[in-house]
Amino acid sequence: MSTLIVMPDGNALSPVLIKQVSLYKKGVMCRDAQQRMIAWIPVVDEEKGKRVRDILIRLTADGPRPIQPDWSFLKEEADAS
User: For residue range 9-51, what is the model confidence (pLDDT) as tens digits?
Assistant: First the structure.
């Protein structure tokens, strides 16, 4: 059984579903094995987008018991808008 990870929007997702993580200009997308979008994390700042992408890639490699990510760095972006 895998542990759910809490995404920045508060939704939860099993990291075993994530088969692709892609960085775009306005956010980060996660896709499943059938190439369906399973998560979208809006991020305007490119450096923060890279950080989100790297966290999600690490989570998929962590196995069935990943450590919950700290998304607090994204709150600064939300507060600024």
Answer: 999 999 889 999 999 999 999 999 999 999 999 999 999 999 9
Residue 73 placed within a domain: no
- CB contact burial 17-54 (16+ within 10 A = b; e otherwise): ebeebeeeeebbbbbeeeeeebbebebeeeebbebbbe
Q: Could you tell me which of 47, 39, 56 has the C-alpha nearest to residue 74?
A: 47
The total domain count for the chain is 1
Residues spanned by the domain of 18: 5-64
Evaluate whether residue 75 is within a structural domain: no
pTM of the model: 0.85
